[in-house]
Write a structure and sequence with these properties.
The chain is of the alpha+beta class and about 210 residues long. It has helices at about 30-40, 80-90, 105-115, 120-140, 175-190, 200-210; strands at about 5-10, 15-25, 45, 55, 60-65, 70-75, 95-100, 140-150, 155-165, 170-175. The protein binds zinc ion (ZN).
Length: about 210
């Protein structure tokens, strides 16, 4: 079951005070609609019932699968006391992947990766290689990059990349063997499941440098 709290917020547009539902804990199979909203990146969108003002208000939210082997904590302020408390609440789960993400887009990405049974450490290594390649080719900095899709049939893993100053993403794919190689590398590096960890490009870089 999902845990929902309601909080009064004052509209930045008209100052009217309204109650807002906030989903602080979501279980995947019990809440298919909330899962959809995560994948559409609309879960944190808010609209004022009085004036129609729209805003995205991101708050801490723990997403997990009861039977599954993973949980993702979205915490816009990073590793807060709340995250540490959640670690205490779910101790000793060394076979469970626990991740910390900062944005709704990162939450969506982790959900997509884990639902497909992919290894996110390996995927971050693939992304790192793609980032370096793209930056060399395009002579522009890659600001954000997300896993998009995979297809065995097409022998393809797809990513979207946002180059500095560009609003629209560019799409880039690699063959599955690139992922397989990264997967082997991911098993060789010194990575252990502990608390809620930020598995991202920076971590991939650190792991590969070691
Ligand atoms: Zn309003």
């Amino acid at each position: 079951m999902a845990t929902c709290i309601s909080k009064e917020i004052s509209c930045p547009g008209c100052t009217a005070v309204n109650k807002r539902q906030m989903w602080i804990e979501i279980e995947r199979s019990a809440d298919p609609q909330l899962r959809e909203q995560i994948l559409e990146e609309t879960l944190f969108d808010w609209q004022c019932p009085d004036c129609g003002y729209q805003a995205r208000m991101v708050y801490p939210c723990l997403y997990h699968e009861k039977q599954g082997k993973w949980m993702v904590y979205l915490s816009p302020s990073g590793r807060t006391q709340q995250v540490i408390d959640a670690e205490r609440q779910y101790p000793g789960l060394s076979d469970v992947k626990k991740r910390l993400v900062l944005t709704p887009a990162q939450l969506k990405e982790k959900v997509m990766i884990f639902e497909r049974g992919l290894n996110d450490v390996a995927l971050e290594m693939v992304k790192l290689a793609l980032q370096e390649l793209t930056e060399r080719k395009q002579q522009a900095r890659v600001e954000r990059m997300y896993f998009l899709t995979d297809s065995e049939e097409l022998d393809y893993l797809g990513f979207s990349m946002f180059l500095q100053g560009e609003e629209k993403p560019v799409y880039q794919g690699v063959r599955l063997e690139v992922y397989e190689k990264s997967l082997q590398a991911a098993h060789r590096v010194d990575f252990t499941e502990t608390g809620f960890q930020q598995v991202d490009l920076a971590m991939a870089k650190t792991l590969l440098e070691q």
